[in-house]
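Discussion board: Methods & Data

I've been asked by a reviewer to show the raw model output for two of the constructs in my manuscript, not just the figures. I'm not sure how much to include, so I'm pasting the format here to get opinions. Each protein appears as its amino acid sequence followed by a line of discrete structure tokens. Is this the kind of thing reviewers expect to see in a supplement, or should I convert it first? Here is construct A:
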Amino acid sequence: MLRQRSALWIVATCLTAVAATGCAGPSGRVIRIDAALAEAGRYMIAAQSPDGAWRSATYGCFKADPALTPHVMSCLFFLPQTGDGALASFRRGAGYLSGFVGDDGRLDVGRRELLFPTFTAAAASRVVVLERKTPRALLTQRAWLAYVLDRQLTERLGWRPADREYGGWGFALDVPRKPAPGRRRERFFESNLVATVYGVAALHSADTPVDDAAFGQILTFARKCQNVSDDPSRADPAFDDGGFYFIPDDEVQNKAGVAGIDRFGRKRFASYGTMTADGVRVLIRCGLGRDHPRVVAARRWLERNFSATQNPGVFAADREEIRNATYYYWTWAVSHAFLALRARQIESPDGPIRWAEVLADEILRRQRPDGSWVNGYTDAKEDDPLVATPFAAAALAICRAMMTGEYATIDGRCVSVRPGRRRSHPQTASR
């Protein structure tokens, strides 16, 4: 009886919170989603430290490092189902991230203080202006964004378009300057698609014009990670399936492994789900239209291979065990990809699929009683609930938006995801 009353209270709270934004009332499956998101939001708020940061109880690298704070905040902002405490929690997090920036606009994180530089700085630059673009928030955004831009592998750091690393971002702890010939390169300095999608999001959040040189540089890198040839004479249908992989010419870091040798004698890497979803977002955010051949090819890959239960793709036998180490990242990435594509329904080999409904049901099934999500695999640290839960809850919130046609935020806004439509609650329209 107590459990039933608790469930009814959660549903009632969700209905009230969402209704306050001006969005349409939920029904059916959406009510279950709202209850799950309310539980997830409360779980994340309860895990917040007094200073506004989120710190891991699982991994030491996430205890002193601020990486989890913008990660949680980027999800929490879109969970109005959580109730009144969400906005206060979000503001404490924003205050924590703002504390790294002085009044002179300089970011002070110390040398190598950030263990995940691109992730942390890019996400921080986004979340600090989600609620309000006050002078202080904009100052903080610019400081974090400058840190990101300082790490893009371009001419400024000695890189040239012919370099395979050129244009993107990587995991380097220090600024990734191109080493002199014969000099040792820092580990993980090279550009990869995951770090790059975070860099793109930071640029987009800062309203960077699409004709900015940075986007062209990013496309130079992203094209190298897609199994597509712009030159038909250099194509190989056996490998050019439209999908993406993590990094050019690296057998170890491409999780799905080597696909084979093509008809030109080139080693080719297997396309897989997380990277193809990221690739779609990069292409679109960098200005390519949804009808561009590269975008169309990547969309077709996602439609043909979509799975709600695993990270799709053909993985080498010795890589199969790490397929789902990034399962919750997959749910997050593919949700964003289909949102960017404005795809409510996809065409799978078995027929049309309402992907958001299928994915939402699977995510709901995996939620733990305390409101969190945890991956049984440890390779990508998704066994930490503060890593997995923001990914899962954000994906679930996007699924809800695709079902209802709109999403709400914790500060009372309601935004349409239908093409050509955008509306906000009257109380916040002037913000």
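Construct B, same format:
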Amino acid sequence: MFDQIYARRLKADMETWVANGWVAPEGATRILASLAAGDGRSRLPMALAGIGVVCMALALAAFIAANWDAIPRALKLAGIALAVLLSHGAAAWAADAGRRGIADLATAFATLVFVGGLALVGQIFHLPQDWAGGALLVCLGAIAAAWLAGSRAALVVAAVAAIQWQTMRSELGAETLVEGLIGFALLAAVLAHPLVHPARLSRWAALSLLYVTFGRWIVEGADRLDDAALAAALLGFAALSAALVVFGALLERRPRDGRASVFAGPGLLLLARSAQELAMAVLLLAVVVALVGISEIGEASLGTALAAPAVALLLVAAVLGSGMLLAAGAREARHRLTVGAVAACLAAVLVSLAAPQAMIPAAALALGATVAVSMAGILAHVSAWTLGGHIALTVVVLWLLSVTIGTLLGQAVFFLVAGLVLIAMALVTARSLRRAAARRQEDVS
């Protein structure tokens, strides 16, 4: 969806650039032709083939399960191993022939066969009593396939298995040092893969594992999932998201020196952009959850949440990153508004946790934060921020309407104040944009 929005925006801008003489008509024609050649239709065959590969792997697992008693144990093990080896051989042949898509699908098929074989054969060795251990084995095998073959699909399987392992392993408060180190190693291996082999799906899978792993670390010290643990997790997710947004913006400002390395290549920048999109969505979700669940959180929740070292550290990192971003891009309105949106979201969550009964300040901050995120998305040309801000704003307004129903005077006062605040924000934004445009014009001249 966002690719289509970008394509429409580029086509509209191209007409302006050609009319102003900034782009030659021949160059514009080539750019638009390249854009049309790389649209979503070219990915349709691979998407269909990917679904077909999943169906074939399920068919093989179902066939073995249906004939479980009829097939000797040695033949079952040999058949599964042979299917995995042949699939990897086909992937190697396709990669050598330059067919990276086919190689990725073949590696994905081998990974799925490995998962199915492990689930079937594991019944002999009492795997149902240790599903977390089985998920860890699947994750290790998928990570090996992802790195050895450069497979994005296998990386997604590894991320899903790692998430399952994080949610199914030892009870809260019973984590050992070894489990913590294993979780960190899995996260590092999964997060590093999109840097070398960029792909949108693998980036989002890796970032999802980051949030799940972080959430597990936050609540690990709690004996149970009570209000204090939920408050710490909520503020922790908000702080992590804020840090990802501001440091991602800082990374985009870093000059490119053309060096051929993992940290200078496109993989890191693409991962940072995906992290910004997901982080802003999580930040908006934290604002909405804090506002809607404000009456369910205890008075001491903020102090308990700040007592978690990781939460306090991430809040400090978000503040420092915001200061660095403002210092680096003080003249750019999009960076100032990004920092303002992040600060408003954090303030909304903090106020909701500090004063659960103070609905009006929390609601005002939530409204301001959602509007600020939408405006930041417009200035930064990040459609996901704009869409997320609109959705969060709609949820907040509908919730406020439901909780104030029956008090028409209260509704009138609240929405009058909200309208005045929004108009004031619009005037300030318009003035800032005019000043930014004037400064850019001075720089050009």
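Answer (T.O., handling editor elsewhere):
This is acceptable in a supplement if you add a one-line summary per construct. For B, something like: Residues 408-444 form the longest helix (37 residues).
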